[in-house]
Amino acid sequence: MENKDDHPHGNGNGIHHDENIVIVGGGIGGLACAVALHKVGLKAVVLEQANTLRSGGISITLWANAFRVLDVLGVGEKFRTMYTNIQEWKIMNASAKPLGKLVLAECEGGPHDVRAVERQVLLETFAGELPEGTIRFNSRVTGIKQSERQTGLTEVELQDGTVYSAKVIIGFDGQKSVVGSWMGLENAQAVGQVAIRGMAMIPNGHKLEPNVNYFLGKGTSSAFLPVNTTKAYWFIIKNQSETGFGDTPPEQVKEEALQFSKTFQSPDLHFLINNTSVENLWKGSIRHRLNKTTDHLVKGNVTVAGDACHPTAPYMGQGGGMALEDAIILTQKLYHALREAPDTAGSQGAEVAGEADEERIHQALVEFQHERYSRTYSITLKSHQIGQANNSGWAVMDFYRDWFLVKKSLNKETFMLPAQFYVEELPGNSIVSSVKNTLY
Ligand SMILES: Cc1cc2nc3c(=O)[nH]c(=O)nc-3n(C[C@H](O)[C@H](O)[C@H](O)COP(=O)(O)OP(=O)(O)OC[C@H]3O[C@@H](n4cnc5c(N)ncnc54)[C@H](O)[C@@H]3O)c2cc1C
């Protein structure tokens, strides 16, 4: 696909860039997508509102499906050597009474990758794979419209007045997606739970076992796990309908976490929160949206992916994994639409070629959404249900959760199924996936 004009034109606030592919949002999904596109020879720019790669100094638990994506992008081994592989999943009540546990290697298809990975390292690794200038920081997208200059082009406008025109726009811009709003998607809804998460630094080394320790309380839940030998990730979740606390001073968030952690009889949890600096804390509302159909997920040559497409409660730890899968599958579709396309321009002229590109791109985006729908829908739904059951706060529900749901979930045959989704290698590479995607 030829770029008509890569050089910005216009003056002052009216600067105009023509690009082939624009990705809105330089988070986990947007950067992974840019790397994948780059690897198959499709040029993209990433518009990121922040002035730098920024992730709040915390971790994200990545499972085998996400590691498969990292392998396809050529960076999986780096993360395997840096981060502890989790061996056991232990669930306790708030008094630390064991409710059940599972040895992950014994689960169907094991051994498995389950690691808490530093978000910042993930972002920096992806950024390091990209040609200089791919990520445009301080680029907050405020508006989108079909181009009046040429059919098949869409324009995104930045807060400072700069305009990018592109043949493909991908909204990887998170749960409050501007791209999604333009496409007519409803906002992700707060589910009435608030999370505080953080990463503790213990320079002399901690003594944690390589396990996830999960606590279920009354209307609350919490967990901690080692990231590596000197860092550990923790979170607490409680029922709270309040939103809009983005301006809460981090010292106050830490105090809140410390006070709240007393709900759980876990000296390790208190220790970890105490050893978390205020820069490594995050507090936010949990949000989700179930897309009833794929109808509003493609508009012309614009689509959404990652949290912008399927905002998911974090109870299965799969939101980031699904964003990474999206990045690869979307790239595969665009590659087939653009790199393998017949040479229409040669025989019928540029205008016909433009129309053919436009149609192929649209079809590729539609196919992408159809392919992703059942998996992302089922995980989004199940994550929400787990959150409601874990945090209901009703005594009867808590009894059912502790004596039935926990045992049902800690099942060697089924526990790892959501992570057993393996994307295919990128086109042009030699390794071919031998595992079929069966469940989602
Ligand atoms: C408490 C909690 C725990 C979680 N734990 C896990 C876990 O263990 N494992 C897991 O896989 N997932 C987890 N998730 C989910 C995971 O964080 C998300 O699914 C993942 O970050 C989605 O990536 P993304 O790139 O789609 O969006 P984001 O990471 O949200 O990135 C969006 C990017 O777009 C940028 N942006 C937004 N608007 C604009 C705009 N208008 N213009 C330009 N740029 C814009 C933002 O600055 C940001 O950089 C958790 C989520 C929460 C809330």
Please provide a written account of the structure.
The protein is α/β, with parallel strands linked by helices. The chain has a single domain (12-419), classed as FAD/NAD(P)-binding domain (3-Layer(bba) Sandwich). The protein is built from 11 helices and 17 strands. The strands form 3 sheets. Strands 1, 2, 7, 8, 9, 10, 16 and 17 form an 8-stranded mixed sheet that branches. A hairpin with a 4-residue loop joins strand 13 and strand 14 (231-239). Helix 1 runs parallel beside helix 8 and helix 2 (64-72) runs parallel beside helix 8. The model is unreliable at 1-5, 344-350 and 430-440 (pLDDT under 50). Bound molecules: flavin-adenine dinucleotide. Residues 24-30, 47-50, 60-61, 139-141, 172-174, 178, 195, 197, 235, 284, 286, 306-308, 314, 317-321, 323 line the site of flavin-adenine dinucleotide.
Strand and helix map with partners:
Layout: E1 16-24, H1 28-39, E2 44-47, E3 59-62, H2 64-72, H3 76-82, E4 88-93, E5 98-103, E6 115-118, H4 119-128, E7 135-136, E8 141-146, E9 154-158, E10 163-171, H5 178-183, E11 189-201, E12 211-216, E13 220-226, E14 231-239, H6 250-261, H7 267-274, E15 281-288, E16 298-299, E17 302-304, H8 319-338, H9 344-348, H10 350-390, H11 395-409
Parallel strand pairs: 1-2, 1-10, 2-7, 4-12, 10-17
Antiparallel strand pairs: 3-6, 4-5, 8-9, 9-10, 11-14, 11-15, 12-13, 13-14, 16-17
Helix pairs in contact: 1-4, 1-8, 2-8, 6-7, 8-10
The structure holds flavin-adenine dinucleotide (FAD).
Keywords: Monooxygenase, Oxidoreductase
Domain FAD-binding: 21-343
Protein name: FAD-binding domain-containing protein
